[in-house]
Amino acid sequence: MPKDKLSLARRLRSYVQEFGSDTFSHDSSILFCKYCEIKVNCEKKFNVTQHLKTDKHTKAVKRKQEESVISQQKFLTHSSKKSCFNKDLCQALLSANIPLNKLSNNRFRSFLSTYTGKEIPMESTLRQGYVHVIYIETKEKIKS
């Protein structure tokens, strides 16, 4: 008795389940490799496994893994010490005689976050964590 041919959507779903939803996604008509950001020929399972063995795919997987390790390291280092960006922002505002409460202006916050690509801290964060440190450093600089 011949095998029943699976519908395209069922075949795509089975590939996503077999190889992982972190690797592939589908929209019922195409199979998309998330690592390589390309559509994969899904006529036969062989084509999908061949894609997984390509040099481009293996390099993309390796790159994503390295990026996740680096981002985890950045998260750990930034959570354990104060942010250089926050300190520099606080120092710049104070040296330019710009009140820290200007950071509560939504338009100014969105401008800063758009063009720096960083999360802009609240004024209370700067006031509590950085103003005193900057004061001490400035005082030491004046003494020397």
Automatic annotation (TrEMBL):
BP terms from Gene Ontology: regulation of transcription by RNA polymerase II
Organism of derivation: Sipha flava (yellow sugarcane aphid)
GO cellular component term of the entry, any: nucleus
Record-annotated membrane-spanning stretches: none
Record-linked InterPro entries: Cggbp1 (IPR033375)
Name used for this protein in its record: CGG triplet repeat-binding protein 1-like
GO molecular function, one term: double-stranded DNA binding
